[in-house]
């Protein structure tokens, strides 16, 4: 079977929230919100399909924004994709969902609808919009009833890490199909994100305990350990073992940047990853994605450049989050600030004379 390739496609900047940790709004400059025209969306879709034909990949789209449902040609795009049998996930807001909308999304091929919860009610509504906490949990039933998998994603930072355990309780009560969290990437706002590596490891331990308790009870929510530092955590606990007969230099897991994923913005800009600042590699209105993949994207596949991960036994399965490293210290290949692996643990080889510092 052919491998999948995922496109995170932002069709519009338009949104009815102003989240404090949003890439678009956190810097305070959003006078010129962009949306693709229908012709641009059509051309972009065919450019993506061309890429998959060239490299023998199966396309998978994450349609987002802003809130993609606010784009005037949103349903027209879904009709186009449906004609090609393309499956997709929507990353959006809850405000425009109802029974009818969810049924139509399912008919067009929507497999998952991802919403966000970034704290308990007071914290989440501070991050996003008053009333959005209750609205998010309320709309889960419509997503589930339509046969779409409901996904809740939490963006974790120092501001909300102590609430994650109770968020897990809330999503289980609401019948959410999938729960995951990822870390906040500094992007120019005033959000205090300074978790230490030890604080983050403690959070993983708390969540792991809660996940296992719910699983033992037969809970139907799937807990997706999305952050790659889960690999480090499970390696230490003996739950992840380095497979035998692995090949030197092969990448088996971890960060998908430069591997099987890219992002397209409403401006047409192609990013190696939306979470990686300044990771522009081309423009979908001007460049053939198939060409960009073997030219500009190469700079994100130099795994030997990782200042710490290149010396780690888990390089082929983890690499932490380069976006967090870039947002924190300005270097994609720098140290992940929440990674607690050390030379003393035996996971990290000591630096050789002349090796660069992060």
UniProtKB/TrEMBL annotation:
Encoding gene, per UniProt annotation: acgM
Protein's recorded name: Radical SAM/SPASM domain protein, ACGX system
Record keywords, A-Z: 4Fe-4S, Iron, Iron-sulfur, Metal-binding, S-adenosyl-L-methionine
Domain of life from the UniProt record: Bacteria
Boundaries of every Radical SAM core domain copy: 1-213
Pfam families hit by this protein: Radical_SAM, SPASM
Entry GO MF terms: 4 iron, 4 sulfur cluster binding; catalytic activity; metal ion binding
Family matches, as SUPFAM superfamilies: Radical SAM enzymes
Keyword Metal-binding applies: yes
Cofactor(s) demanded: [4Fe-4S] cluster
């Amino acid at each position: 079977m052919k491998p999948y390739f995922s496109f995170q496609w932002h069709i519009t900047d338009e949104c009815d929230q102003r989240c404090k940790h949003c890439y678009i709004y956190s810097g305070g400059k959003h006078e010129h919100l962009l949306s693709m025209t229908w012709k641009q969306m059509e051309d972009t879709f065919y450019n993506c399909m061309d890429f998959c034909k060239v490299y023998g990949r199966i396309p998978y789209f994450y349609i987002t924004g802003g809130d993609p449902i606010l784009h005037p040609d949103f349903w027209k795009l879904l009709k186009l994709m449906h004609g090609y049998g393309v499956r997709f996930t929507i990353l959006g807001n809850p405000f425009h969902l109802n029974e009818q909308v969810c049924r139509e999304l399912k008919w067009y091929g929507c497999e998952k609808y991802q919403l966000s919860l970034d704290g308990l009610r007071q914290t989440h509504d501070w991050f996003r919009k008053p009333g959005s906490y209750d609205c998010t949990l309320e709309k889960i039933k419509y997503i589930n009833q339509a046969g779409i998998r409901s996904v809740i994603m939490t963006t974790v930072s120092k501001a909300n890490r102590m609430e994650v355990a109770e968020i897990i309780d809330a999503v289980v009560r609401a019948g959410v199909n999938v729960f995951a969290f990822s870390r906040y990437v500094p992007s120019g706002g005033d959000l205090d994100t300074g978790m230490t590596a030890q604080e983050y490891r403690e959070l993983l331990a708390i969540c792991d305990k809660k996940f296992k308790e719910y699983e033992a009870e037969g809970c139907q929510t799937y807990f997706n350990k999305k952050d790659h530092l889960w690999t480090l955590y499970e390696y230490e606990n003996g739950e992840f073992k380095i497979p035998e007969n692995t090949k030197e230099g092969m990448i088996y897991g971890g960060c998908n940047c430069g591997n099987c994923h890219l992002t397209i913005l409403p401006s047409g800009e192609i990013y190696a990853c939306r979470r990686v600042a300044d990771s522009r590699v081309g423009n979908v209105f001007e460049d053939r994605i198939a060409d960009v993949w073997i030219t500009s994207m190469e700079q994100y596949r130099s795994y030997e450049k990782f200042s710490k991960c290149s010396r780690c036994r888990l390089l082929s399965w983890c690499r932490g989050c380069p976006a967090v490293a870039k947002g924190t210290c300005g270097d994609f290949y720098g140290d992940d600030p929440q990674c607690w692996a050390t030379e003393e643990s035996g996971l990290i080889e000591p630096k050789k004379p002349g090796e660069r510092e992060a």
